[in-house]
Amino acid sequence: MRHADHAGTVLLRRLRRGTELDAEHAGTGAGAAGRQPGADTPGDPGTGPAPVARAGTEPGAGDTDPVREPVRADPTPAVPEEDDDTLTSIPVISATQPTPQAAPATTDPDPGPDASARARALLVPVADQRAPEPAPDVAPVLPGMPAAARPRVQAPSGEPADETGPPCPWCEVGNRPDRHFCRRCGMSLAERPGVPEARRPWWRRMRDFGNGPTPWAGERPRLRRGIGRIFTWLAYGLALGLVIYAAFNVSTAWNAARDHFAKRAQISPDAADASRSFKDHPPKALFDKINNSWWGPGVSQSGEGEWVEARFQEPTRLLDILITSGISTKPSDLSEAALPHRMDAVVTTADGKKTTRHLKLDQVSGPQQRKFRAQNVVSVRFIIRSAFNVGADKQVSIAEIEFFTRATTSGT
Description:
Elements lengths: L1 H33 L78 H10 L79 H4 L21 H22 L1 H12 L2 E4 L3 E4 L32 E19 L13 E11 L4 E7 L6 E22 L9 E9 L6
Antiparallel strand pairs: 1-7, 2-3, 3-6, 3-7, 4-5, 4-6
Helix pairs in contact: 1-2
Keywords: Membrane, Transmembrane, Transmembrane helix
Protein name: Zinc ribbon domain-containing protein
């Protein structure tokens, strides 16, 4: 833009000078035309026109004034093409000849609208010729804080085949047979691209709920349809039902766990009763903790329907029972009486609810242990249904019945 401003300034300066010269030449020509050849005095060299030499006279023989050509006024000055502030249209006057005084010319400081318009038309916009500054190769950094070197990213390239073995299905680089992942790309060597994985059975897929493999980009997951999907929902429903059942039976499960690991302690009933009893063998003999005393109904054969009952004043939690068949624990006494085979145990709780349990005994001597889990028990009635070794001269005999509950010293 500096060159454009300078060029415009030079043009305006030249136009102004040309306008001044045109005005001066016009004034000089008008004064010469208005005067007569003999009107000026010879003594005033600045007001009259230059003398013209006549024919036949010698130069220098009387008239010593130099001869000047009249200057013709040109309304349109020629603009030189060179970038020079001087004008070539100024006439050159010899230094030896005196210069007549020119008539004062009226100069107009304003060149006029036509000159300004021509100057603006001659202005040519010039682009900035300054060369752009080159960008620095290295960015400036603060003193004492050097810039960290940029990491060099290298594309994966083939490595020397220093390991022999099956090639990787992803990058085809050899790997040892004991490797599970590729030594270069890290992909699994057990999978091959484009080959679908074998479908596992349903009981293995249940453990992977929510941990399925992530599909590849652009891969559409397989739609699960058919009867297998129905079985899956049934399995989920069953699992949900078990969870709900467990939530409502937490206390029962907790008590069962405590009963399994708790220590046992023997407990005796507060009262006993029976449908009938043999002489000198009352029902209390079943709970006296002595094995050589027994109870019998006093009737022969199997004694079906006969019963004996144990009562507790306070509700009691029972865990196990021990039943000793016969009249003693000696094996030689087994043939002396009939032995109970099947019995029904009717359990009555504190709320009046009755539950029947079936007991099946063996034809052996000594106590026989059976699980008998019940809580808040107030009475237990044993009803005889069948017997071993029955006869017309034999009656059913039971030597001992023992009850066991949680031990208070077990800490449970």
